[in-house]
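Suppose a classmate hands you a notebook page containing two proteins, each written out with its sequence and a corresponding row of structure tokens. How would you begin to make sense of it? This section walks through that situation. The first entry is reproduced here exactly as it would appear on such a page.
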Amino acid sequence: MIGLGTYAFFWQHSSLAQHPLTLADMLQLTRDEGVGLFQICDYEAILGYSAAELRDLRSLADDLGVTLELGTRGVLPDHLASYLALAETLGATLVRSMINTAEHRPSLAEAESLLRTTLPVFEDSGVTLALETYEQVRSNDLVSLVEAVASPNLGICLDPANSVAALENPIDVIDRCAPYVAGIHAKDFAFTRRGGWVGFTLEGVPLGTGLLDFDHLLAAVTPEARGINLIIEHWLPLGETIEDTIALENNWNTSNLQYLRSK
């Protein structure tokens, strides 16, 4: 299934927007695009929602026909338990996370121990934890960690663009992680020369216009056959004005949806 998420509306729910979008607004815009999946990712405010607010959010999603996923960072058991509780309330069956946070950077051995503590309750609840590929943890280490924990409810959230910053070839990341993928963040990227031709900038571009070999990703992972969702994200830099940036963000959402639907 194709979905949108909070990163697809990054600038529209930021404090720079004149009228920042709420989660309810983003859910409605997702439905308006004909999409039935939304990932609430790295949206810390949700931890402060009351039980009534969470019930209302779930009710709205149900009324709109939008399935929810969640995303956070870190592998500390108490933190993941909080997100598991959110997932159960919101009907989400996938929680994306990352190994490191700004405050906690466990070794791989420590991360394995923490995940072994956490995964049994995820298994009991039928919720999958998907650890994202990114530059702070090399993809071979991430695969080794998933293999070592060996839980049916632990997988990988594949985002090969992130690993470019660690000088990993996206094709290698895709092939290495493919058997363990539980979710996909779909975004394209490109390098452009900086001013004066001194160095490069790595930033997002609309799907199908950059360096990501998306056809290879689909062939290697086979998400449709395996029931793996694709969540659209962007690396969209701030333009001259926030209004121009928001307009472009919405254009990218529409064009990226068209691209994925054509595959």
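The notebook's second entry, a different protein, reads as follows.
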Amino acid sequence: MSDRISIVVMVDAVGALSDRTLHNGNLSLVDDGPASRHQGTPDLVTVVSPGQIVQWTPIHVDVQTPVEIQAIEFLPAGAVPAPAGPDAAPGTAAPAAVPAPTVDATDSGGHENYDLLVWEGVVPYGMTPGVPYRYRLSVRLHEGPNAVLHVDSPALLRV
């Protein structure tokens, strides 16, 4: 397994803003890992190893609305994804017995990749093998009260 895995966050900003959700085909997550599951969906499960660097890069599929990652926050292990959309209450994931990783992703200090801010984090050694660690991926699509949308369905999985 390589020392880095890349996740591309493709967002149809016009669709997401119209629907006020990242579901309905408005978000596609793809990684370069050979064993990952649910490629091309918001439910991507990226298979990782401890110490591996995970890198997220946002890409917008329309040319008028830029997309940036607002935050990546790990949920309690085993958490059920919260509903996404305009009526979803933030932070409604169910708690679990296994603690979430203590290291969360941070922006890469302004490292630019094709003019997009890239986020990265290191997979902690304390992750329990076989347990999917779900994370909230929040993206900013523009300015205003409905500018930030999120999904709680992607996960990292240590093998």
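A careful reader of the second entry would note: The first helix runs from residue 13 to 19.
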